[in-house]
Amino acid sequence: MNLSDMNTSTEETLALTYILYECVDRVAYITLNRPEKRNALNAEVVTELKKAFDFAENDEACKVIVLRANGAVFCAGADLEYLQQLQHNSFQENLEDSTHLMQLFYQIYTLKKVVIAQVHGHAIAGGSGLATVCDFTYAVPGARFGYTEVKIGFLPAIVKIFLLRKIGEARAKELLLTGDLISAVRAKEIGLVNDVIPDEDLATTVRQLAERLCTQNSGQSMEVTKEMIAMVQEMPLKDALNYAAERNALARATEDCQRGIQSFLDKQPLSW
Q: Which residues are catalytic?
C-alpha cells in the first residue's frame, strides 16, 4: 500500500510529496521517495519526515517503524541546490534551518517506538545521520557510509552528538575528521551498523525483525527502555541508578508486566 492507497483523511493529515507512509501488520514504513535527487535532504524533506514520524508515533495501528528509501541511494545528504541557497541566508535563517534538522534527529532518537533503518544504498553526510539516530541499522554489502562535511568546509555538528554515543570518541573522530567513506562491513565492525545483509534478503530481514519486536515484546517496555537508554548516559552514576530503580518499581505495577509475569508462570505463550 502506497500513499495513494491511504484514506483521504490520512493523506490530508500528512500532505506528503517526498515521503511515502504505509502501515502493514503493525509495522509503519516511512520511505524517502525522491530518487531523482538521490533522496537528498532539504527543508521540505525534513519537514515531511518530521510529519511522518510524528504520525507513526501516534498511529495506534503501528508498533515498530522502518525507515527506507526508493531508488539506488538511501540518502545522499543535503541537496546541492539547497546548499547553494544556504550561502545567501542570514545567520538567523541558518540557525532556524539547522535547528529544523536537529529536531528531526532528536525526534527519531527519542521516538516512543523502535525505528529500524533499512539501508539499501549509500548513506552519506545527512544520510549517515539518519542511519545513526535509528535504533537498528541494517545495510547491504554495497552500501557506503560517511560524514563528509569536512571535505566541503562544513561541520558534522549535529550528528556527532549521536555518533559519539553510538560508537565512542575514537571511532567517531576517525569518521568525522577524515570524512572518508567506509564500507558496510567496516560500519558493522565499529558498531554503526547492526548487520550486513545480502541485497535480496534485506527487506525480508528487516520485516522479520520488526514483526518479531511487534509480537514478542511489550511496546510499553520497549518505549521506556529506549527512553532510559537516552537519559542515563548523561546522569551521574548514583542519579542514574536511582532513576533506574524508580522505573523498575513503576514497571512492576503496569498491566504489561503483570500479563508477562503471569504468562511466564503459567508457561503460556504471550502474543503482544
A: 149
Distance CA 69, CA 38 (A): 9
pLDDT by residue, tens only, the chain of 272 residues = 343 344 334 555 688 999 999 999 999 999 999 999 999 999 999 999 999 999 999 999 999 999 999 999 999 998 888 888 888 899 999 999 999 999 999 999 999 999 999 999 999 999 999 999 999 999 999 999 999 999 999 999 999 999 999 999 999 999 999 999 999 999 999 999 999 999 999 999 999 999 999 999 999 999 999 999 999 999 999 999 999 999 999 999 999 999 999 888 888 888 88
Amino acid at 87: Q
Give which of 204, 210, 226, 41 is closest to 128, Cα–Cα.
41
| Residue 127 near residue 105 (C-beta atoms within 8 A) | no
Q: Are 167 and 223 in contact (CB under 8 A)?
A: no
| CA distances, 210 to each of 21, 141, 149, 240 (Å) | 16, 21, 32, 29
Smallest CA-to-CA distance from 77 within 32, 20, 21 is with: 32
Taking each helix axis from N to C terminus, what angle separates 159-167 and 126-133, rounded to the nearest 10 degrees?
Answer: 50
CA dist., res. 41 & res. 67, Å (int) = 14
Integer-rounded Cα radius of gyration of the chain: 19
CB 96 within 8 A of CB 127: no
